[in-house]
Amino acid sequence: MTTALDTTSPQPVKRRSRPSRREELLRAAAECFAESGYTAASVRAIATRAGMQAASLYCHYPSKADLLIGVHEIGIERITQAVREAIHTELPPWERLEAACTAHMRSLLGGDVFFEALMRNVPLRTDPAYRAIREMRAEYEALFSDLLDDLPLPADGDRRKLRLMLLGAMSWSFTWFSADRDTPEDIARTFVRFLRQPLDA
Amino acid sequence: MTTALDTTSPQPVKRRSRPSRREELLRAAAECFAESGYTAASVRAIATRAGMQAASLYCHYPSKADLLIGVHEIGIERITQAVREAIHTELPPWERLEAACTAHMRSLLGGDVFFEALMRNVPLRTDPAYRAIREMRAEYEALFSDLLDDLPLPADGDRRKLRLMLLGAMSWSFTWFSADRDTPEDIARTFVRFLRQPLDA
DNA sequence: ACGTAAAACTAACGATCGTTCGCTAACTTA
DNA sequence: TAAGTTAGCGAACGATCGTTAGTTTTACGT
Fold it and tell me: Which nucleotides of strand D are protein-proximal, with an atom < 7 A from a CB?
């Protein structure tokens, strides 16, 4: 009969001295959140993808919800950086807006799992993480508010709705984008052109 | 000590001869899906809201996934009907489009839980219910394809992207709409006007 | 009035969930 | 080298999940 001796063999248990194991964990979380959505993604699946046990995950993050916040932080930080760089140059207002939109779409549709996780997990107003995430998004969207303020619009141009329309159309592209038919840059250019040029004959 | 006698009293268990108990069930499901999202909504919560036990739910629907499909069917059918009525009149192309958008936004933001459930549960490509739901959505969006075909656009007007931009912007409004600041009709009108009129000075 | 089928019930199944516990082994630092 | 810190592990907790089985109740056609 089995005794206490023949238990599990003592596998090495490599301890990673990597700069940050948390980053690998966040990436794994982003992948799972992107694939299955926050609720359906299990901490066990995330941990497995990061090469550890579910319990070990809690050495780095106190809860699953904090993982989602962490994923959002990285995603928002990246896209903010990308847009900031794109509008850093001296350009006419409309061209600056187009540059921002191009950077926005490139980030969103470029295949980065952090952005996929972002888009597929827009927080509900009842979520506990709603406030934290919403604040991050608002800060990012303020970039576009500034860009629109520089635009020479007609007097009746509702800048708020213009921002919401443009950002909304771009956000939703996540649901229909197909790399076969479209490119992020073309979508951005076309959307800005639709607003800029008269479509009515 | 408690015996087997003092268990739950035999409550009457009124049997509803209503035209369709399934409809109440679908409404309860829509409410739960809208509040918590599909995965986080439990069949027990849905059943409780419909005034029955979780097991009784399976007398009407074979699975939770079928409930989601049923909710989508009702939502799509309602909004299709609303838009069809709106564009039934004889109107110039742009006015017809605006009428369709107004009806679209009124449905989406009017507080109907079926539409809230729709918007908060856009299916992932990996979901088993993805195909069924996607087909329903495509059929609805074809309405707008027809409307855009009637529009007198410049030669370089990409009608597909125009449709995706307009529908995307309207869909996303679900995430920022506030009844205090906006009305569905105003959003629809403004969005169409942005496309129709030149914004560039 | 009776038989029957649908609808609702209670109970429970196996699975999985997020999280906690106690311990081991590795790295860091003194 | 001794002490301290901590990432990682196996196991398990209590809860909840979607679903099924078996039974009882209700409504309705004959």
Answer: 6-12, 16-22, 25-28
Do the Cβ atoms of B199 and A173 come within 8 Å? no
Q: How many CB atoms lie within 10 A of CB B53?
A: 11
Q: Which segments of chain A does DSSP mark as H helices, in order?
A: 21-36, 43-49, 54-57, 64-86, 93-109, 113-119, 130-149, 159-176, 184-196
Confidence band for B127, pLDDT divided at 50, 70 and 90? confident
A151 chain-B contacts, CB cut-off 8 A: 199
Is CATH 1.10.357.10 what the domain over B65-196 is classified as, yes or no? yes
Maximum alpha-carbon separation in chain A: 88
B164 touches strand D (CB under 7 A): no
Contact A64, A43 (CB under 8 A): yes
Q: Do B200 and A157 touch (CB under 8 A)?
A: no
pLDDT tens for residues B34-59?
A: 999 999 999 999 999 999 999 999 99
Q: Report domain extents, chain B.
A: 65-196
pTM of the entire predicted model: 0.89
For A187, the closest chain B residue by CA position comes to B161
Which class is domain A68-196?
mainly alpha
Residues of chain A contacting B161 with CB distance shorter than 8 Å: 187, 190-191, 194
List the structure tokens of B103. 């009806």
The token duo for A106 is: 């490139």
Residue with tokens 């090495």: A12
Digit-coded pLDDT (tens) for A144-182: 999 999 999 888 789 999 999 999 999 999 999 999 999
State the best of B150, B185, B190 to mutate against chain A, taking most chain A CBs within 10 Å.
B190
Nearest to A168 among B120, B158, B168 (CB): B168
When CB atoms are compared, the residue of B152, B195, B201 closest to A154 is B201
What is the SS3 assignment for B166? helix
Q: Answer whether B79's CB lies under 8 Å from B140's CB.
A: yes
